[in-house]
Amino acid sequence: MKRLFLAFATVATLLAIAKPASGENPADVQRLLETGACAGCNLVGAELSDTHLIGADLRGANLSYATLIGANLEGADLTEANLAGADMTDAFLTNAVMDRARLDGANFTAARMYDTHVRGASMNDLTLTGAELYNTDISVGGSYEEFFPE
Question: Per-residue pLDDT for 34 more than 80?
Fold first, then answer.
């Protein structure tokens, strides 16, 4: 009985700390890579490292837990996108728009964000270690309105 309990506890612990399973729609990933337009797409957990998504239309897309390490998102429109838990280490986001996006728990380590719009975005628990932020209103904890009321 002890062994069964120990086995159950071990499996439960592993499931609790594991990254959510990839749930992206492969057709959506292909559409994004081919056309750069994927508004409202399901890209949950998608592997998009080192992709060139310059000017991509990702409005309302679900990119939660996606891997975008080294991705070039210059001029991309991520308005109302869900980037919760996304890994954007070393991503390039010049002139990108992330207004009203969900950025909670996103990793922006060493990311470069110049003139990036984040009005109304949810920004709890961001990782910004070594990130370069110029003319970008990023804050840690809370939303844009809490720090810059109209």
Answer: yes
Distance (Å, whole) CA 144 – CA 141: 9
Pairing mode, if any, of strands 112-114 and 132-134? parallel
Report the 10 Å Cβ neighbour count for 8: 10
Region class of 135: left (phi > 0), else alpha (psi between -120 and 50), else beta: left
Rg (CA), the chain: 17
The CATH code of domain 42-145 reads: 2.160.20.80
- The residues, any chain, with a CB within 8 Å of residue 8's CB and separated by 6 or more, are none
Considering the entire predicted model, what is its pTM? Answer: 0.78
Identify whether the C-beta of residue 86 lies closer than 8 Å to the C-beta of residue 108.
no
Helix, strand, coil percent content, the chain, rounded in steps of 5? 20, 15, 65
Tokens of 3: 């062994």
What per-residue confidence (pLDDT) applies to 18?
42
What sign has the CA pseudo-torsion 142, 90, 46, 8?
Answer: negative
Query: What whole-number distance in Å separates Cα of residue 123 and Cα of residue 136?
Result: 13
